[in-house]
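Problem 12. The chain below contains 324 residues. Write out its predicted structure in token notation.
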Amino acid sequence: MKRHVLSMLLALATVASAETITQYGQACADQVAPIPAFSCEAGVPVPITVDGRTPANYTPQMLCDRPSLLREKGVKTDGQCVPNSRALVLRDDDRAQISAFCRQKKIRPAGTHLFDEIDIVAHNVRTGSTCWFQASAPQPLRADRGVDGRYVPPPNQVQRLPGYPAAQTFWNRPSQTAAGKCVQCHDSGPFMYSPFIAQTKALPGDPWGPYKNEIGRDFQRWPKPLAISTRGNACTTCHRIGNMNSCNVAMFESTGLLRSPGLDKWGTQFPQSHWMPPGNLHSEAQWDETFARSVRLLAACCQDPKGPECLVSDYTQPAKRPRP
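Solution.
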């Protein structure tokens, strides 16, 4: 009985000491930049095409040219090719970069104000400090309900703004967002590039700047990503390769060695299948001559970072761009 009471008291103390969304939001505002109120309706829609054309209808689990790369276990969605997501750049300068994404996981009509998830990544270009915010629709996901994206409040807003929901109820708790371990996919930097998001041109980039998740107790527990490279590597002359999802999945998806879920036949054919480097103008033979060996070397170092040819570095300091 005493143990049970002690466990309950410890649990209550943990909840009481947990960081609130407004506390985390204020820490982000202080160390990165204030995040403004915004509307998802101002975002750039993410096109979903099939064989280069917008289909007449969208169906669950359909295939498309540039599917979303986000896969979630235990969440019933309509697949990787759901239309009407929107991307926004709220700030992009030499001090801060703030990106918002209003994501659809269920098929809804065009012009809808409902979304299944709203995400923000805020990044200090000078220090590398990065913070993460997420608002989620209730489970199970349904097309007739979701997060209202018309009035998105600043996550540090203690006093409710007129016409906006309270930040405390709109945004997920920091511990809930941190549980998603966003860094596992965002391991090469704060902003993850893919053909899906690249269509909008609404994505900041800081491939060589410092990057760290030191704001918020829950995010400090994330594993620290490392950059994997080799001397003279053609791939890492443009950006880093992180040692998590980039090493294990994204590198192979971007070079035609692994088919992304949701990808149609058009997307598996060269040059669409090789979406790194962006704007690929090579022939397939030229691409192989320039990049294939570099990919093989990186793959080997991802498996054994202590190999003799491998270079491993952290992101806490600005990187010097390697020379090919």
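Discussion. The longest helix spans residues 284-303. Students who got a different answer should revisit the alignment rule from Section 12.3.
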